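Support reply, case 0932

Customer input (verbatim):
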Amino acid sequence: MKNNTYLITPLLAWFVAGCLKFLINSIRTKKIAFALIGYGGLPSNHSAIVSSMVALIALNDGINVPAFGVAFTLAFIVLLDANSLRQAVGQHAVIINRLTQQDPEVRVLRERMGHNKIEILAGIMVGISVAFMIYSFSLGI
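Our regenerated output:
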């Protein structure tokens, strides 16, 4: 296993999830959806990134190594954050935007911040798929 796979895998997972999100948003809105790039949406980039690393470590080194425990713990925190804290931030942005809509000097806050469980699950599936592809490619399969 080449050491650069640990760097390439999460970057590729981020790229794949971002491209899928852009494509899905463009299809949903029936126009090029550059304005919807960012936090929130299907699939979750954050979930794809952290799950790709958990999966790659599990495939390469097994689940009985310290790196797997660290990656799993980090992924757990990120996934909880994506579903709860960031959704609350988005809900606060909605209320703040309503309260300040009459003031032209106040910048409108991004309201879509968190992810629902389907968006997180889709991100996890993207991450695991990318990790498996990188792992298979590194083995010459």
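We compared this against your earlier run and they match. Two observations from our side: The chain has a mean pLDDT of 86. Residues 5-139 form one domain. Please reopen the case if you see a mismatch on your end.
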